[in-house]
TrEMBL record:
Keywords: Methyltransferase, Transferase. The lineage of its organism: Bacteria, Pseudomonadati, Pseudomonadota, Alphaproteobacteria, Sphingomonadales. It comes from Sphingomonas paeninsulae. InterPro entries: ASHA1/2-like_C, START-like_dom_sf. Pfam families: AHSA1. This is Vanillate O-demethylase oxidoreductase VanB. One of its GO terms (molecular function) is methyltransferase activity. It comes from the Bacteria. Gene3D superfamilies: 3.30.530.20. Residues 12-145 form the Activator of Hsp90 ATPase homologue 1/2-like C-terminal domain. Belongs to the AHA1 family.
Length: 147
C-alpha cells in the first residue's frame, strides 16, 4: 500500500467532452453514480446521495480546482460509508483528474493522495476499496464519453 492511488485511461473522446463529463455536476453524477445537489464551483462544497452495496449514504466533497480543460480536483473522506460514523474530524484525501489531448482522444489520469494521514484503523481498507473503485469509475467514464 502507498499514500496514493494512480490510474490512467485512454479515452476515444475529445478533451472537451471528457472535461464536461468531469466538471458538469449532472454528467459527473451520471457516470460516478451519485445524485449531486448543485453545480460544482471551485472552493465550494459539493453534496449528494450515493448508493453503495445497496446502502444509501451522503457523498461530500470540496471542489478545489476547475482549470478547464486540463485539471479538476476535489477532496473527500475516502470510503466513508459507515452509516453511524462521523468522518468530519478525519483528514480528507485529494482527488486530481488530469486531462491531456491525444491524437485519438484524451489521456485521463486520476490520482488520489493522502491515505497516510488517515486513522490507522481505516487507512488500509480505504486504500483497497478506492483502488478498486477508481478502476470501476474509469470504466464508467469511458462508457459515458465513448458513446
Amino acid at each position: 500500500m502507498t499514500d496514493r492511488i494512480e490510474k490512467t485511461i485512454e479515452l476515444k473522446a475529445p478533451i472537451e467532452r471528457v472535461w464536461r463529463a468531469l466538471s458538469d455536476y449532472r454528467e459527473f453524477g451520471t457516470w460516478f453514480r451519485v445524485e449531486i445537489e448543485a453545480p460544482f464551483e471551485a472552493g465550494k462544497a459539493a453534496r449528494g446521495k450515493m448508493n453503495f452495496s445497496g446502502r444509501e449514504f451522503i457523498w461530500n466533497a470540496v471542489i478545489k480546482r476547475m482549470d478547464a480543460p486540463e485539471h479538476f480536483a476535489f477532496t473527500w473522506h475516502p470510503y466513508a460509508v459507515g452509516p453511524d460514523r462521523d468522518y468530519s474530524g478525519e483528514p480528507q484525501t485529494l482527488i486530481e483528474f488530469t486531462l491531456k489531448a491525444t491524437d485519438t482522444g484524451t489521456h485521463l489520469t486520476v490520482v488520489e493522495s493522502g491515505f497516510d494521514s488517515l486513522p490507522e484503523g481505516r487507512r488500509e481498507e480505504a486504500w483497497r476499496m478506492n483502488d478498486g473503485g477508481w478502476t470501476q469509475q474509469l470504466g464508467n467514464i469511458r462508457d459515458h464519453v465513448e458513446v
